Amino acid sequence: MSTIVVFVEHTEGSPRRGSLEAIGAARAAGADCVAVLSGPGADAVAATLGTNGAARAVVLAGRDAYSPDATAAACADVVKECGANGFLAASSACGRDLAPRVAAHLDCTLLTDCIELSAEGDGFAIKRPWLAGKCIAAVTTSGDVLCATTRLNVFQPAEGGGSAEVQTVTLGEGKAEVVSVDAKSSGALDVKEAPVVISGGRGLKEPEHFKLIEELAAAFGNAAVGASRAVVDAGWRPHSEQVGQTGKTVSPQLYVAIGISGAIQHLAGMRTSGTIVAINKDADAPIFKVADYGIVGDASEVVPALTEEIAKIKAQG
Description:
Elements: E1 3-7, E2 10-11, E3 14-15, H1 17-28, E4 32-38, H2 42-46, E5 56-61, H3 68-82, E6 86-90, H4 93-106, E7 110-114, E8 116-120, E9 123-130, E10 135-140, E11 146-150, E12 165-170, E13 196-200, H5 210-220, E14 223-227, H6 229-233, E15 254-258, H7 264-267, E16 275-280, E17 293-296, H8 299-315
Parallel strand pairs: 1-4, 1-6, 4-5, 5-12, 6-11, 7-11, 13-14, 13-15, 15-16, 16-17
Antiparallel strand pairs: 2-3, 8-9, 9-10
């Protein structure tokens, strides 16, 4: 059986869902999983990963501040020590920073934003969006080690299992370390991680009309607010909400595009969503070509009615 090393991010004593999805991807490909963790609280999180599909957990100890280059070197060492033929990280900000460094240490090609992973012969078969999402590339590995990131909200976290053996390794010195993080603490879900994303575009006409988007997202309860590049450039919404080629790439279970025409730049960031619903007054808007369901109508009339119905369904449990 093959072995894949997975870097596990964690916050507030719990592993990030994206990392659990990466473990699920490894397990679905028939591989044993070795989880690697670092930072304060890593020991407690490592002890729980057996129930999430990890056969073994390696805690990188010795420093509180996160050092990406030191962590990458340590992850590469774990891959070599285990004789693993794969390394995975979630396609989060941290994972996208770490994985290329690990690939450099292992002298292998990095495959980013993977949406499918399976065993094939002595290696793996990968599927990933290509050319800004215009097509899906099918890739097979020929090297000794696969190094890849997994797109968020695509793979299912592994469930069940037993306890994982926990090993502690001293982290070496790094050239750089993160001394502080100045993050916006709004309490809102990140569009990359939310299972439902409600996005608005220039068709809403005024920034005040984004209240319709916020109310619909609140009705779902597990939804994040997204935005097109046009409204972000206009200053209506923060860049952290931008979905698209120059914003964030999302793959929620449900994506609702309201007042968004469907420019190529935007489609590149959301076309791999599970179900796409488009609401637009223009029946010829390009967004309808990729939507699973389309509603031709005025957002000021359609969205409040939809919000009311979603709220009723949620109230019924």
